[in-house]
Specification:
The chain is of the alpha+beta class. The chain contains 14 helices and 12 strands. The longest helix has 17 residues.
Length: about 350
């Protein structure tokens, strides 16, 4: 039986491993200010977080993740470069699968270093790979940054680009928006009338927090969007080709470079992947057999904006990732009060590791 005591002991062991690699151990509060996470992720975070209220501090959340509070701590008082490690419980609501735990122990390693981003990516991946190596897990890598670069390069309005970027981590909404902008989804009769008639007013009671002025502003934005030219079939096909890249890393790079000929906005991101591949090789990672999936990471936490990776059990498909991680440069800027620093990190689930070891 995998007891809590065994899980905490393994977490302490993994934390010492990261300390030996140069990380400083840090602690974060279990209760986190809800407004920070709501500002970052919107109300979607409420579907997977526990929220409570404090008379003095307002709404609080049981810690759904360590990265945000660690970034806040570093941006407020940390020197650079910096490496941190931590361990403790995180809490995730489970509304659809009662067999998945809503509380589990997580161990992490975070690197804040602007000198060599590709080298930092490789460092985090290699250290976590070393810990899980005895389990013979299946590794997957990806890069959210390449999809973001592709969206930024589309020949469409900034409002549409912003909407697509906001929903990169929600694949179904992203696809629906892409199809609508390309004219592949018919408008409902009601929406056609609403967008065609500027005099139409909403005759309904106000429910929720949006004012009449905000509703009218939204209607005007929808009408302006309806007048924008459709996305070209060529651009949509290129995005589809990009999202379907699923190869070992060297072949994925070849494919991405071919796509970059017609979608030049992704070229810098492709070259960052090439630099990372070289850095991984220097760390002893066999990149010739390392899988790369352009769509990987799109259902993770929304702060990832570059390299992403995960380690999965090939024999226990029902288990979540044993370890995950990625780059979150933009998050440091959002939480840094005007400053920023490239950052990358990864987390492990020691409880799942013990479970897999017990089954071997």
């Amino acid at each position: 039986m995998i007891t809590r005591a065994k899980t905490l002991a393994r977490a302490a062991e993994q934390r010492r491993f990261f300390e030996a690699a140069g990380a400083v151990p840090v602690e974060t509060s279990i209760l986190q200010p809800a407004h920070t996470l709501l500002d970052l992720y919107g109300e979607d975070i409420l579907a997977r977080a526990y929220v409570t209220s404090d008379a003095l501090r307002g709404e609080q959340m049981l810690r759904p993740d360590f990265t945000v509070p660690v970034v806040q701590m570093h941006m407020a008082e940390g020197a650079e470069p910096a490496r941190y490690t931590y361990s403790g419980e995180v809490f995730r609501r489970q509304e659809h699968d009662p067999d998945r735990p809503n509380e589990y122990v997580q161990v992490g390693y975070e690197v804040f270093d602007r000198a060599d981003p590709a080298g930092a990516d490789a460092e985090v991946f290699a250290l976590i790979s070393e810990i899980v190596e005895p389990l013979n897990l299946r590794a997957v890598t990806g890069d959210i940054g390449i999809l973001m670069a592709a969206v930024q390069g589309l020949k469409t309005t900034q409002a549409r680009k912003s909407a697509l970027l906001r929903h990169i981590w929600r694949p179904r909404r992203f696809r629906n928006l892409l199809n609508r902008y390309a004219g592949r989804l018919p408008l409902t009769v009601e929406r056609q009338k609403l967008l065609a008639n500027a005099d139409v007013q909403i005759d309904a009671p106000l429910i929720g927090r949006r004012s009449q002025a905000e509703i009218n502003q939204r209607l005007e934005a929808l009408r302006a969007d309806a007048k924008a030219p459709l996305l070209s079939t060529v651009e949509v096909d290129l995005l589809d080709a990009l999202l379907n890249v699923r190869e070992t890393l060297p072949f994925a790079l070849e494919h991405l470079r071919d796509i970059a000929v017609d979608l030049p906005s992704i070229a810098p991101a492709v070259e960052r992947i090439a630099l990372r591949a070289d850095a991984l090789s220097l760390r002893g990672i066999d990149v010739a057999d390392l899988p790369f999936e352009a769509s990987f990471g799109r259902t993770s936490m929304e702060y990832y904006d570059g390299f992403v990776f995960g380690f999965f059990s090939p024999t226990r498909a029902e288990l979540p990732a044993i370890a995950t991680g990625g780059r979150y440069d933009a998050l440091t800027q959002r939480l840094g009060q005007g400053t920023e620093i490239p950052a990358v990190g990864g987390v492990l689930r020691p409880g799942l590791i013990l479970e897999l070891e017990a089954a071997q």
